[in-house]
Amino acid sequence: MSGRLTRRLGRGLVRGLPLLWLVLFFLVPFVVTLKISFSSPATAQPPYLPVIDWQGGLEGWSEFLQALDFQNYHMIAGDALYRDAALSSLGYAALATAILALIGTPTAYAMARASARWQPILVALVIVPFWTSFLIRIYAWIAVLKPEGLLNGALLKLGLIAGPLPLLDSSVGVLIGLTYAYLPFMVLPLYAVMSRLDPALLEAAADLGAGRARAFATVTLPLALPGLAAGALLCFIPMVGEFIIPDLLGGSDTLMLGRVLWSEFFSNRDWPLASAVAVLLLILIVVPVVLFREAELRREEAAEGRGR
Amino acid sequence: MSPFARSALTLALAFLYAPILVLIVYSFNDSKLVTVWGGFSTRWYAILFADGPLLAAALVSLKVALLSAAIAGVLGTLAALALDRHGRFFGRGAYTGLLYAPMVMPEVITGLSLLLLFVGIGLDRGIATIVIAHATFATGFVAVVVGARLKSLDRSLEEAAADLGAAPLRVFLGITLPLIAPSVVAGFLLAFTLSLDDLVIASFVSGPGATTLPMRLYSQVRLGVNPEINAASTLMIALVGLVVLAASWLTARRGQGG
């Protein structure tokens, strides 16, 4: 074999193996899910109809296609449960993202302004909880938030409240859980941008008479916006589909799409409907991603325009 | 640092660590009530080590984590090499998107759609299907870790080897791989802990006989707070802590030509 051929073969393998795997186990499953979202549930193995008849040739295919319908989507559009779940998923994710931005911005700013010796330690401190089990970290909050839990106990002892607050099994619990679990995803992109800011810019602002707060609002914050946008997206997308947090910290009335999908699949065994919920969830997520990409492209173009 | 920024940072770190500390402290609580301190005791650890189903689930989790992290380690390293070394190839944007999308995709979607694929092609559900699922979502994480190392790599050694007539594979095995090895191991360890941690995807794609540790813990957590789970959690945190230390030691060595 010639050298050039082996070289091309090698490149093909390097690029192709991960591609093949991800197409097979990430892209194709979505197509299957889309197909099953147009099927009907059945008491069979597998529990949905129609199933493609590979031996049936063209006729089998057309029969298969005719048996598909929009029944599950009609159901989702018609039943208030799914609409409410979609709206409240978006609401929880948006509210938690806003809280994260409020907490994450000063945290990342403080990290970026810490001494060079401290910065890697602080970054590690923010990352380490991300390595420990998600389930365990959310479980840990149950003992803190319970009516007879540590937080209520401390507040009662301090005399700040008269009776225990309903923190667990409520929307407050879900918001605390979301904020807690996704804080590193907000802080790290913000820190990445802020630590690269030229300190001369802040010195210039100070020389021109701006106080610390003003310099932060007019220099640091606008320059950190790309980090804020990236952090918001990294948090918002998985939060919309979150399951563990609403399940453990939310009440029985806490509706989120991830939880609805889970119960359609595991409790009701309605795979086609669960698939339709998955498609709906995916659409809700893809929209902000596309908007973000558009904004990023526009910014890049604007930056290139200025560079010329 | 301004006092405001300093207190924000302190509060954020306290917020991140307080629940974990509470959990660890109460795993040594003699009382069965999680909120009442009944004195120091290690009895929950003794109960834990006598809990057969839990230990069996832990073994399943370890197997799955090792296998899936090995696959994700290879695939993620290859993908990082392709993105770093192949320039602006056709479909590069889509390639990057496909690589990183599984990292943010809600787990319920990944889990459900993989299960539907496995059922559709008639693959028996069990340890193998969980391994495939975990390798799929961990590949992107490995690619990020290895990609960061590749970006900061000094290319002159590889160029010198190529100039001296070494074939690309030989350059890779002799020069590139030893240089990026610490980041490959770090990526492997990250994939390992992600697999050990996953509840949602494993619940969808596992079959009878393949219960992972998080699945077992979840079924008990649903019944309420239980000191035995605190003990199990503390051990898992300790294990992951060791893994993190190993990973950060490996990445810290990169400046020394490791």
From TrEMBL, chain A:
Span of domain ABC transmembrane type-1: 86-292
Highest taxon, organism lineage: Bacteria
A Pfam family annotated for this UniProt entry: BPD_transp_1
Annotated compartments: Cell membrane
This protein's UniProt keywords: Cell membrane, Membrane, Transmembrane, Transmembrane helix, Transport
SUPFAM superfamilies xref list: MetI-like (SSF161098)
Signal peptide location: none
Stretches that traverse the bilayer: 12-32, 90-109, 121-142, 172-194, 215-240, 271-292
Matching PROSITE patterns: ABC_TM1
Membrane topology according to the record: Multi-pass membrane protein
Entry-linked PANTHER family: INNER MEMBRANE ABC TRANSPORTER PERMEASE PROTEIN YDCU-RELATED-RELATED (PTHR42929), PUTRESCINE TRANSPORT SYSTEM PERMEASE PROTEIN POTH (PTHR42929:SF3)
Record family assignment: Belongs to the binding-protein-dependent transport system permease family. CysTW subfamily.
Name this protein carries in UniProt: Putrescine transport system permease protein PotH
Organism in which the protein naturally occurs: Methylorubrum suomiense
Organism classification: Bacteria, Pseudomonadati, Pseudomonadota, Alphaproteobacteria, Hyphomicrobiales
Automatic annotation (TrEMBL), chain B:
Annotated CDD domains: TM_PBP2
Domain ABC transmembrane type-1: start-end pairs: 58-248
Keyword Cell membrane: yes
Localization per Swiss-Prot or TrEMBL: Cell membrane
Ranges annotated as spanning the membrane: 7-28, 54-83, 95-121, 127-150, 171-193, 199-219, 231-252
Alphabetic keyword roster: Cell membrane, Membrane, Transmembrane, Transmembrane helix, Transport
Membrane topology, as annotated: Multi-pass membrane protein
UniProt cross-references to InterPro entries, sorted A to Z: Bact_Polyamine_Transport (IPR051789), MetI-like (IPR000515), MetI-like_sf (IPR035906)
Stored Pfam families: BPD_transp_1 (PF00528)
Presence of keyword Lyase: no
Family, as annotated: Belongs to the binding-protein-dependent transport system permease family. CysTW subfamily.
The protein's name: Inner membrane ABC transporter permease protein YdcV
Native source organism of the sequence: Methylorubrum suomiense
